[in-house]
Amino acid sequence: QVQLVESGGGLVQAGGSLRLSCAASGRTPVTLSNYHMGWFRQAPGKEREFVAVITWSGGSTYYADSVKGRFTISRDNGKNSVYLQMNRVKPEDAAVYYCAADRNRFTPVQTNSARYDYWGQGTQVTVSI
């Protein structure tokens, strides 16, 4: 079982920055470099939506149009972690953010949440105006 733990959420002022982290946890943490890793978010009353994804090697990334140019997904396979750098945060970015792992690393990255196999518990991002 893959256990993922997000951290770094909190209150940020509109226009500010926040960095989210996702790490594998558990007694025998899995190696995240075996997975494409994605970030999703869900605001109250809305469906979970894709934010960004990075390939298992870190060689390619893909972003939702709503965050392109403001957010950056990265990974440090040596630290077994994935990150989401959020810059120029907007009020509409407020949501619970989830990291997710896609074990099908030899297939193209996915934006559909149903294609992801493992999820963290989420971290709340609140944006003040």
What does this structure look like?
The chain is globular, with a radius of gyration of 14 Å. It has no helices and eleven strands. The protein starts with a strand and ends with a strand. The protein has 129 residues and is mainly beta. Strand 7 (71-76) and strand 8 (81-86) form a beta hairpin.
What is the element layout, followed by pairings?
Elements: E1 3-7, E2 10-13, E3 18-25, E4 36-42, E5 49-54, E6 61-63, E7 71-76, E8 81-86, E9 95-102, E10 118-119, E11 123-128
Parallel strand pairs: 2-11
Antiparallel strand pairs: 1-3, 3-8, 4-5, 4-9, 5-6, 7-8, 9-10, 9-11
Q: Note poorly predicted spans.
A: none
Categorize the overall geometry: globular
Helices and strands, in N-to-C order?
EEEEEEEEEEE
Distance between the termini: 40 Å
Number of strands: 11
What is the mean predicted local confidence, pLDDT? 95
Instruction: Specify the structural class.
Output: mainly beta
Total helix count? Answer: 0
Computed over alpha carbons, the radius of gyration is: 14 Å
Kindly estimate the percentage of residues that lie in beta strands according to DSSP.
over 45%
Quick synopsis:
The chain has 129 residues and is an all-beta fold. The chain is built from no helices and eleven strands. Strands 2, 4, 5, 6, 9, 10 and 11 form a seven-stranded mixed sheet that branches.
